[in-house]
Amino acid sequence: MTVWLWGLIAILALAVIGLFVKILILQKAAEEIADAFADRLQTDTNTLIDISSRDKHMCHLADTVNIQLQKLRTEHHRFRQGDTELKNAVTNISHDLRTPLTAICGYLALLEKEEKTETVKRYIDIIRNRSEMLTLLTEELFRYSVILSKDSDIAREPVVLNKVLEESIAAAYAALNERNIVPGIQMPEEKVVRMLDRAALSRVFSNLLNNAIKYSEGDLEITLRETGEIIFTNTAHGLNEVEVGKLFDRFFTVESARKSTGVGLTIARYLTEQMGGNISAEYDNGRLSIWIFFQGRNN
Predict the structure, then answer these.
(1) Could you give the CA distance from residue 245 to residue 253 in angstroms, rounded to a whole number?
(2) How far is C-alpha 266 from the chain's CA centre?
């Protein structure tokens, strides 16, 4: 009886050890699949996930993940190709529109010098207004496609945020004055310096100022903090939280911005992120705030 009991205990012990080893093998296989899956998502490679375990269930899991990865990679390549084709199409269309628009504007200038009735003059003014609007939209599309098609890296240099922001506000003075907007500006006396691309930063500030001018109901507050935060805030009751959440989406516009292609904030986000910064929008009690943050070495 004792021998039989000890034999049973030995068998149970071996079974437990076997199960423990099996669990360790399965855990290792699961970790291998998880690590390989994360690696495949970060790299553009056709290498499949391979595991050391020969367990049929884990092998089936690895095969299933490989199939889904291949589908995901195919869709990703299709998306990238479509995005590239869209950018090229926008570039070509906006470029091709320049020539006839230039001719139209030229002939309008000649026509304005001729004798005309008040009705004809009114019609010419309408055509001039629409032509100028179309020219602006075409240029905006062309700049968008050029900026987002650049493969060159951002050129970094020590940039004083205070100075670039002041220059951008001064450049927008005429547009602000036309809308009777007197911006409230808060800046620290100390220089806020970051390693950025000066031209790209000027573009970001310019686009944000243009956006504020379009949406503002007569007010604008611009704040620069020592931490590297820049905040543009204005009253915009015509917006809602859904629209604000889409402001950075490509080609998104709202009714109050009919004269825009909706790429200004998209470019601002792209350039900000290229320089290592963050940009976001908030909407509270009819006030739209756009935040930019460039982290410093000591932040």
Answers:
(1) 12
(2) 5
Q: Quote the pLDDT of residue 222.
A: 93
Instruction: State pLDDT tens for residues 204-225.
Output: 998 889 888 877 778 899 999 9
Query: DSSP readout, 151-196?
Result: -SPPPPEEEEHHHHHHHHHHHTHHHHHHTT---EEE--SS--EEEE
Please indicate whether residue 291 or residue 45 has the higher confidence score (pLDDT): 291
Question: How far, in Å, are 10, 109, 121, 138, 260 from residue 102 at the CA level?
Answer: 93, 11, 20, 11, 20
d(CA 140, CA 145): 9
Residue 4, CB-side half-sphere exposure with 13 Å CA sphere: 1
Name which of 85, 84, 102 is nearest 138 in CA terms.
102
Query: How far, in Å, CA of 186 to CA of 192, rounded?
Result: 13
Cβ neighbours for 256, distance < 8 A, ≥ 6 positions apart: 214, 215, 236, 238, 239
Describe the crossing of helices 2-42 and 56-112 by its angle, rounded to 10 degrees: 20
C-alpha distance from residue 164 to each of 86, 167, 168, 177, 289 (Å): 33, 5, 6, 20, 20
Here the tokens at position 189 are 């006396």
Nearest to 268 by CA among 229, 211, 213: 211
In DSSP terms, 235 is beta-bridged to 287
List 160's β-bridge partners, or say none.
Answer: 193
